[in-house]
Amino acid sequence: MELPMAAAIAVLFGAGTYMILRPNLIRLAMGFTLYSNATNLLLITIGGYTRTSGAPFVGKDPQSAVGLMDPLPPDIILTAIVISFAVGALTLIICYRVYLDHGTDDPERLPTGDEHDTADELSPLKTGPAFAPVAGPGNHPPARGVPSPAPTPRQWSDRRREP
Amino acid sequence: MVGPEEGTVNSLILPLLVPFLTALVLALLSGRYRLERVLAVASSLGLTIWLVWLLLYVDAHGIQAVVIGGWTAPWGIAFVADRLACIMLVSSAGLGTIVQVYTCWTVTEAQQKYFFYPLMQITLLGVNWAFITGDLFNLFVAYEVMLLGSYGMMMVGASRPQVRQTLKYVAINSIGSTLFVVGCGVVYATVGTLNMADLAVRTAALAGERSGIVTAASMLLLVVFGLKAATFPLTYWLPDCYPVVPAGVIGYVAGLLTKVGVYSLLRTFVMLFRQDGSAFASDALLFLSGFTMLLGVLGAMCQWETRRLLSWHIISQVGYMIMGIGLAGSLDPRVAQLAVAGTILHVVHNIIVKSCLFLVGGAGERITGSQQLKRMGGVLELSPGLAGLFLVAALSLAGMPPFSGFLSKFVLTLAALSGGNYVVVTAAILTGFLTLYSMTKIWLYAYWRARCRQRPLASFRPLLAPVAVLVLLSVLMGVCAQPVLGLATRAADSLTNPAEYIRVVLGPTKTLPTQAIRQTRVAVAQAWEAAR
Q1: Would you call B414 an interface residue with chain A, using a CB distance cutoff of 8 Å?
Q2: Summary mean pLDDT of chain B
Q3: Percentages helix, strand, coil for chain B, rounded to the nearest 5?
Q4: Residue A126 contacts by C-beta under 8 Å, 6 or more apart in sequence?
Q5: How far apart are CA B184 and CA B136, in angstroms?
Q6: Structure pTM?
Q7: What ipTM was estimated for this complex?
Q8: How many angstroms separate the CA atoms of B176 and A124, rounded?
Q9: Residues in chain B within 8 Å Cβ distance of A163
Q10: Which of B158, B181, B371 minimises the CB distance to A80?
């Protein structure tokens, strides 16, 4: 049972890595889901799962521990699943919010410069949520083919300017 | 099963319970901003006082442990308070209190509406949990709780750069978490336990046979903790992510979150993975530490924003701690003990001074309205008090004699020199000079130049009090060097020789095969020499 499991784990990790490396935020979130599934499969394999092994504590023969799966890895998997749910949901929400903010889901088109300065934080007009969606009307994503607004280019000259 | 002093053990769960319950109460109190602040500060202050008592108690009476749920030790999850854990807990809760006092003036009500204080308490919960747990998988859960809290804290206010940078932070930490679970799994598969005391016994006895794969698993954990601590190849997320954290909060995030990674490295590579005589891990750590120090300080030198500059300095200071952990693999037990003591001192020093510099920077930003060094100026004229506090903290960071930085760097350098690692010492001393250079740069541009505006942009005077407390702590730590060094040495002793830890957690029957460890280490050292 270990060989097919190892193959499945390898495929899942490979697919997850491919997804994460794509320039697309939703694929990034999906890549992490694949990663967590691969990890859970790995843990099941570690627990000594074979085709004949029973569930922990309720094996074929209740009197002996023969053929039982190790009960600790399923325990770890449960915890890991719950955590990856929470983090996955948070990742999706942040991805969507970045998309609304910048009108693109391509990480390479996000602005790299830091427009963040303290005067903005302290000024009463700009405190609070700087939530101004740039995607289409009613926060709907822009239609396919419509070019999203280009991010403002980084102002290198700002950094060179002498005081 | 538990130590000789059974009376106090159940209260070891308080560092988790107090922030957790406070977070619940604060989350229900939404809208009553003033009450929320008072409650948050009061709960953290109370916890700090209790933890100081616990530190003194543990220092006097030995390690305390509690196994949750009535299971016996290798199966149940143990919470262990040894001296190192107590020192870290006191630092965490104390810094949490000071930062929360500071944020009473810097975090606006609009930001507080986003559950700022509950998230802060959740982060405190995760950090405390990571320090007190005695189980490797439980450490993973603690990391996740801490990370979820810190994601929320970074995004408080939800401005565009905040959300964008938090996405990076979430992404890089998700990869770290995956590797952490895989590492736990491989350790469990090869060693058969996740309890730290049991791991220390079994990995030490494992010599030879399956030590290769355990070393591989420990390298996975090295990547995970190195990512969290921002060591050399995995640093690039930090200087981008930290500057967007709201002013004040960054003091806690920058001061403590990377140190959780360093603490985990200390715990795992000094206490747990000794299967190959630590030779591989300690060489790798020493190699990484030199690069981390130099890369961090060189990155800091070319920055023109205070937050970004100080963020790069976090990296270079982590390099010193990694150096100490690497030196702990030395064959001479006195060198190892000195190195671990130096690391502990440097961690505490850095928690105090680094967050102090960020808090000073926050006050400076409120005066000048900018974090660009070239747009700041004249803080010395506008607030001499703040300038004085910055000067002390900056000199302490650079390692000038009367302050805490000198003590820790001196102990680390001493350990490295007696271990014969001259290359790393050169890197460390060079880093010290360059640190002084970049602190001078802040001083020249932000403090000494002509004032950039007639009066301070926003009120900053109340912020001086929490900063002054931190500066005072740094000075005290440098002046009272002897008792502080004594405490750190005792903490290092129980880490490099975990017999007491194992006895308290697992009961008196299990002991560390000290003889076997020594033989393995000597054999490995000879093998390395032969290979060279």
Answers
A1: no
A2: 86
A3: 80, 0, 20
A4: A120
A5: 7
A6: 0.87
A7: 0.84
A8: 38
A9: 374-375, 377, 445, 449
A10: B181
